[in-house]
Amino acid sequence: MTAVAVLAGCGSSDPELAGSDEPAVAVDAPDRVLTGPQGTRGQFVVECGFDRFLPDDPIVHPGAAGASHLHQFFGAVDVSVESTYDEMLEGATTCDQLADTASYWTPTLVGADGAPVEPLRAVAYYRAGPDIDPTTVVPYPPGMMMVAGDHTAIEPQPLSIVSWSCESGGRREVRPFDCTGAPSLRMWITFQDCWNGVDERSPIVPKPSMHVAYSAAGECPESHPVPIPQLQLAIDFPVPPVDDLDQLALSSGNILSGHADFWNAWHQDKLRNEVVNCIHRDLPCGVSG
């Protein structure tokens, strides 16, 4: 597979590619790359500070402390494999939206010196999937768990799932590139936007995303007929020196193994209000960079 880049002008009024009239089928990735200005669509946006590094994965390795590669956690404070949904609801959060006590985690960026690079922040964009009727989107059920991206990847993943940019700039590549002068180096992970309507987590733990899927041509597949918000998670890192770019890695393996986990522990009434008032009405709420 060949590494590719996607360029989009930051002043574009429609940063997405055109849709298709073909019937929806089950797909492994979104049918377009979202780039350019992030505030042009109905959505709600939350910014979350870094909480901590921990070699835990409550979704893939529940109850098994230290069984995972190193992750960086955002949102609900002190999440581990022992955490419960109720504890997260009652606990603190690093997010600027205090009703967002969900947990977000990704593999750690490893610098040229072999040490973890502390992230600057995470920005969570919630919106309808491409061409999905926003009025059909339903909130995630309480406690829903999802994983996007492939931690075993050794070749480039689709840019529509995992990509790198210079903060909110429109250029997307499969590897970090020179962001000299930009505020940050950013990793993007785009989650599935269709749900089977039954399971809050995958019925098979080693396959954590069987209960969710990506839409195609503005429709969810028959196997996963319920539209849910499409979460696009952006992680900002300090801009690395150009000479270090080829030596960057992720704790899950090489730099191509980007992925992210999401555990919904939003205060459910607030989540429902955000979906109705922002996504259904096609209004951008709390738009950040």
What's this entry about, in short?
InterPro entries: DUF1996. The protein is mainly beta and 289 residues long.
Q: What does the model show?
A:
The chain is mostly beta strands and 289 residues long. The chain has one domain (63-285). The chain has two helices and 18 strands. The strands form five sheets. Strands 9-11-15-7-2-18 form a six-stranded mixed β-sheet, covered by helices on one side. The chain has a five-stranded antiparallel β-sheet with strand order 3-4-5-17-8, with no helix packed on it. The longest helix has 13 residues, at 268-280. The protein starts with a strand and ends with a strand. It holds the Pfam family DUF1996. Residues 57-266 form the DUF1996 domain.
**Helix-strand pattern:** EEEEHEEEEEEEEEEEEEHE
End-to-end Cα distance, whole Å, is 31 Å
| Form type | globular
| Helix and strand composition category | mainly beta
Put simply, the count of helices is 2
* Strand arrangement across the biggest beta sheet: 9-11-15-7-2-18
Give a quick account of the main beta sheet: strands, pairing sense, barrel closure: 6 strands, mixed
Low-confidence stretches are 1-26
Number of strands: 18
Rg measurement, Å:
18 Å
Q: What's the domain count?
A: 1
Average predicted local confidence, pLDDT: 88
Strand content: 25-35%
